[in-house]
């Protein structure tokens, strides 16, 4: 039966009135979320004089001079390279360490399984400040303070519990009939894990890796405490220079630094969003 409201102008108007409050709230939330981002981007494209003349106005004469100045002054190529190294290898190592525990906790009956799972997830409840001193002492005893490999190991260990939680959820959703079929074919536990469970867990691995990559990229405290050499600083620590008196007299350069530091995250989101949301692996566990 055709929708009468779609043909009746008054019905369409009343339908719009009913939806108006929800649309208004949605637009307000979008504005609240996008407002600071738009302000930072527009500020980064202005000269300092133009910003002082109109902080909330759109740039009439956009310029990339703040980007060039900040890039050269802070050595952003080194900072971005360090952050990319920490996020890439730290996330990969965290996922690698979580694969076997997640498989065992999701597919096997282990004595004290709930206790073990709870202990692993304790890492999710600990603020960074509570582990700084033990980690500092451990890294110092291993001569890994102020080293890139030391910070990578810290990121991997701190990110492993969240990866176990994510991967266990994905692996639990895989039908157990696949395990039984593989056992009937004579497959060992390792073969079931590597040839059945692991390929079907690729969406979970991708999600976990992406979330951990973003977390490491934004991380500040570990890099500040465990690193001393500027050559090892990630971008979050390196941008502390923008808080000096030299840069606090201007506003466009800190804004440009923020925009540059977020570009890799935006690129990662664009590259992985379609892969995660397209459901290209969903058919592998159906039928």
Which homologous superfamily in CATH is the superfamily of the largest domain? Answer: MetI-like
CATH class of the largest domain: Mainly Alpha
User: How much strand content do the residues show?
Assistant: under 5%
Low-pLDDT runs: 279-287
- Give the fraction of residues assigned to helices: over 70%
What can you see in these coordinates?
With 287 residues, the protein is an all-alpha fold. The chain has two domains: 4-64, no CATH class; 66-285, MetI-like fold, CATH 1.10.3720.10. The protein has helices at residues 4-7, 9-44, 48-53, 65-74, 76-107, 113-125, 132-141, 148-172, 177-184, 189-200, 202-218, 221-226, 235-238, 245-248, 252-277. The radius of gyration is 25 Å and the shape is flat.
What are the key terms here?
mainly alpha, MetI-like fold, about 0% strand, about 75% helix, about 290 residues
């Amino acid at each position: 039966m055709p929708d009468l409201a779609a043909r009746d102008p008054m019905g369409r108007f009343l339908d719009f009135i009913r939806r108006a409050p929800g649309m208004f709230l949605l637009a307000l939330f979008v504005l609240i979320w996008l407002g600071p981002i738009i302000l930072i981007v527009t500020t980064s494209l202005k000269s300092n004089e133009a910003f002082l003349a109109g902080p909330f106005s759109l740039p009439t004469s956009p310029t990339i001079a703040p980007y060039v100045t900040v890039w050269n002054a802070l050595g952003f190529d080194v900072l971005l390279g360090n952050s990319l190294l920490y996020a890439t290898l730290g996330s990969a190592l965290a996922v690698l360490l979580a694969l076997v525990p997640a498989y065992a906790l999701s597919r096997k009956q282990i004595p004290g399984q709930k206790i073990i799972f709870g202990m692993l997830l304790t890492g999710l409840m600990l603020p960074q400040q509570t582990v700084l001193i033990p980690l500092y002492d451990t890294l110092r005893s291993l001569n890994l303070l102020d080293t890139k490999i030391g910070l990578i190991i810290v990121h991997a260990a701190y990110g492993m519990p969240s990866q176990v939680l994510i991967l266990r959820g994905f692996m639990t959703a895989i039908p157990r009939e696949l395990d039984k079929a593989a056992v009937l074919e004579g497959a060992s536990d390792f073969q079931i894990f590597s040839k059945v469970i692991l390929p079907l867990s690729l969406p979970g691995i991708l999600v976990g890796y992406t979330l951990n990559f973003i977390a490491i990229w934004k991380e500040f405290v570990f890099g500040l405490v465990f690193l001393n050499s500027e050559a090892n600083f990630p971008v979050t620590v390196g941008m502390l220079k923008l808080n000096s008196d030299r840069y606090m007299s201007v506003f466009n350069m800190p804004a440009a630094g923020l925009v540059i530091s977020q570009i890799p995250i935006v690129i990662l989101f664009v590259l992985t969003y379609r892969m995660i949301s397209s459901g290209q692996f969903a058919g592998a566990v159906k039928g």
